[in-house]
């Protein structure tokens, strides 16, 4: 039984869709995709940053001015509401009063993919990389699919694609869907095939209790289509604990990290295959992607041939600079489990080098005094570590100030520095030891706009 009627058929006449908070990464990507498909797109936002601003401008759908304008909602067939907007948004009020259908973007994506096979990658970490790996292989194997990504990926000019393809690969975020739809995004997708990468507490501002957070994944598993397939990380005890509870009709497929072979190879079924990513967590993501591709009809040999040149999504151990003495990495890691796995990946790959790990506290969770102790020992693989946060971010999130000594003691690293000024951080990094010393920059933000170009361009 279909849960919704399809909103628009791609072969229908042009329809008008209005985006409230169009500047978000996923929101503007969805707007661009629908615009290219022939829909009339309008939108509003109170702030639009790069690269969203330039991309919307190039397509001719950048709002003329920032702010909210209820008068824009004329002859609108549907509204897509972004999480950045507030529940009392004047455009939202106008849409609801006028009877215009309002959807969160995950709800909209689901409705547009009702007739497709839905593959959803869920979990607290590894979602973007695993999704990107699958799409990379499908592209190499000339298998058409739609997709929803959480980050820019080389080879794909947009983070969203909706077409008439019979398959869609979705990165399934557990954060809230919209200001008036307080369900996690993953609760909208009803997958036929799902990966569950791991569970580690995040989003404390929404899920203040770990068990509440974990319960969102429990509910999600219950939403997998009957006789669906669940590919789960058997090395994650929290995931395994949920699997042990199951009594529904699912095919369960466990996976673990691929074995490292010689050099930059992996060893699978007694064969050596070259890969271009580092870290055990990425070899775990790769094995999950391999199994998904198997279920879609791609052999192991074809998978490894296709994945060999995959270098990762944007800000996922992205190499900013590399020479014979050191490598500078930029990574999206921000939650404790991600920070720990990323540090371990870099240090284990170059154990002979020193490692300076730089972590920006930027999310609601990471800036929350009650959550910060979760970072204890997550940077232990680094020889030195730096914690950065700034007062402006705290003010923007309406959060109290943080004491640097408290942050330092919570992290529990013997050589830890704390900076709250980006100029001081940049000066520290400029003078960092260059002799066989890697630098790992981790943040879901941008280090208060710090220009990272001073590291050089040799990558």
Can you describe this structure?
This protein has 459 residues and is α/β, with parallel strands linked by helices. The protein has three domains: 16-104, Rossmann fold; 113-307, UDP-N-acetylmuramoyl-L-alanine:D-glutamate ligase; 318-455, Protein-Tyrosine Phosphatase, Chain A. Helix content is 29%, strand content 21%. It is built from 13 helices and 22 strands. It has a seven-stranded mixed β-sheet, with helices on both faces. Helix 1 runs parallel beside helix 2 (52-59), helix 5 packs across helix 8 (280-295) and helix 5 packs across helix 9 (300-307). The longest helix is centred in the middle third of the chain and has 16 residues, at 280-295. The N and C termini lie far apart (51 Å). The model is unreliable at 1-13 (pLDDT under 50).
Secondary structure: elements and pairs:
Blueprint: E1 16-20, H1 25-36, E2 40-44, H2 52-59, E3 78-81, H3 90-98, E4 102-104, H4 105-112, E5 117-122, H5 127-140, E6 146-148, E7 160-161, E8 167-171, E9 176-178, E10 181-184, E11 193-196, H6 210-222, E12 229-233, H7 237-243, E13 251-255, E14 259-260, E15 265-268, E16 271-274, H8 280-295, H9 300-307, E17 318-322, E18 327-331, H10 336-349, E19 354-360, E20 384-388, H11 391-396, H12 404-411, E21 416-419, H13 422-430, E22 437-442
Helix pairs in contact: 1-2, 5-8, 5-9
